[in-house]
Design brief:
alpha/beta; two-stranded antiparallel ribbon; 17 helices; about 35% helix; binds pyridoxal-5'-phosphate; binds iron/sulfur cluster; rSAM_sf; rSAM; 4Fe-4S
Length: about 450
């Protein structure tokens, strides 16, 4: 089937940053205050976009409210007013790179750059040696961070990996890391899934991706390879017009032919991302390989805090053959303040969207917090014995025994993360806390 592009193809990927964005006409026409905010905030939080995102996904007549503008361009309120003023003054006074960096780092360290114990508690060991390119938190799934896949086609302003993009988080990888993963999987036959993540692994050329993933095809206990990626939204050219697009699709077919389930875990924030002809063609091509595309995204104020947006997104995903998988709660890091939606509101949005869609889209679960003890879903609110409570459950737990048992927290309309919650019914602790304290020790 031939495919005719009705939009420019952007044959070559070009990163747009605060260094080169002034070459673009969209930038020239942007309100000076918004421009200033991009320049100031991007000293602290990473900024990167590309021509496709900027020209096809952002509707400039709706800026600054446009959701994809909010998703990819730094906004003034992401920093405290004093911090903003401090960086702005340094920039205006022509401060040196060192001065700017020192101020930026001081602000960055106040933004909880390493949430949920990722660096300290999830790095597995083999024969007494730490394996820094891996994380193993839940029984059946290991996360794999290939060294050459640690950037993205564009950066989301809310992203909890922001620290890694600016070199604050020192994950170093060497050529032997697939060897480490293979050895670890051989020692742990209970691990059925590898989740390849980043950054975005699909930023890698197919040749490199093959180098990392081919060794996994030989491991009989491994059933599923998941690839976490935003590429279908931010650079669908990866599967359609890039020089090695066809080679990537052939590799996906080989993974499937080797008897593995290949799951593309697509970050999918807004239905706009699914609307372009090239995105739909990319989805079609990926599905044709036998891979299954599952979608997930956090609920983000200014971007998708609207039940109709989620309902439309899930409907459109199902129509295109994708499977809605998770709705996440924005993590407690970076410009969280700007993006956070209270848990009570998040659950209302989830439920209001869920009610609008057919059962085929109700594969999605959420809203879910990826917190230190596990993935905790807010099932809803209820009144039990005269007390208003949140009903919660673990979708994943550091101890699998915690999963699927409803538990209760005092209702709090302002709570926006698990740490804000208190147990209901006058209890001292949540049921898992004592054990968690022992595990974290
Ligand atoms: C979400 C997540 C997984 C995968 O969980 P599933 O519920 O199986 O999708 C694995 N490891 C970590 C650290 C995660 O946060
Ligand atoms: S594409 Fe994913 S990993 Fe990359 S910045 Fe966005 S949320 Fe973060």
């Amino acid at each position: 089937m031939s495919f005719t592009l009705t939009e420019p193809t952007y044959e070559r990927y070009r990163a747009i940053t605060n260094q080169n964005i002034h070459k673009y006409s969209e930038w020239e026409r942007l309100d000076p205050e918004l421009k200033e905010a991009v320049m100031v905030v991007s000293q602290v939080l990473p900024f990167r976009t590309n021509e496709y995102v900027m020209r096809e996904l952002i509707d400039w007549s709706r800026v600054p409210e446009d959701p994809i503008f909010q998703l990819t361009f730094p906004q003034r309120e992401m920093l405290d007013p004093e911090d903003y003023e401090r960086i702005r003054t340094l920039l205006n006074n022509g401060a040196s790179r060192e001065e700017l960096l020192a101020a930026a780092n001081e602000i960055r360290f106040r933004l909880n750059p390493h949430p949920a114990g990722q660096l300290t508690h999830n790095v597995p060991t083999l024969n007494g040696r730490k394996l820094p390119g891996l994380q193993h938190k839940y029984h059946e799934t290991v996360l794999f961070f290939p060294g050459q896949g640690q950037t993205c086609h564009a950066y989301c302003t809310y992203c909890f990996r922001w620290a890694q993009f600016i070199g604050l988080q020192d994950i170093k990888f060497e050529a032997r890391e697939t060897d480490d993963l293979v050895a670890y999987l051989q020692a742990h036959p209970e691990v059925t899934d590898v989740l390849v993540t980043g950054g975005d692994p699909m930023i890698m050329r197919t040749k490199i991706l093959r180098k990392y993933l081919e060794p996994l095809l030989e491991i009989p206990t491994l059933r599923t390879i998941r690839i976490g990626t935003k590429s279908l939204a931010y650079w669908p050219q990866r599967y359609v017009t890039d020089a090695d697009a066809d080679d990537a699709l052939r590799f996906f077919e080989e993974i499937v032919a080797a008897g593995k389930h290949l799951a593309i875990m697509a970050h999918s924030s807004h239905p706009v991302e699914l609307a372009t002809p090239i995105a739909q063609e990319a989805i079609r091509r990926v599905r044709e390989t036998g891979a299954v595309i599952r979608t997930q995204a956090p609920l983000i104020k200014h971007v998708n805090d609207d039940p109709d947006v989620w309902a439309e997104k899930w409907r459109q995903e199902v129509k295109l053959g994708m499977i809605p998988y998770y709705m996440f709660v924005e993590r407690d890091t970076g410009p969280k303040r700007y993006f956070e939606v209270p848990l009570a509101r998040a659950q209302e949005i989830f439920a209001a969207a869920w009610r609008q869609v057919s059962g085929l889209a109700r594969t999605v679960r959420g809203p879910s917090m990826s917190a230190f003890p596990g993935k905790v879903r807010i099932i809803g609110t209820a009144e039990v014995a005269g007390e208003k409570v949140f009903v919660l459950e673990f979708l994943q737990g550091r101890n699998p025994e915690w999963v699927g048992k409803p538990f209760f927290a005092k209702f709090d309309p302002h709570a926006s993360w698990l740490d804000d919650l208190k147990p209901a019914f006058g209890q001292e602790r949540f049921f898992y806390e004592e054990e968690l304290a022992r595990m974290a020790h």
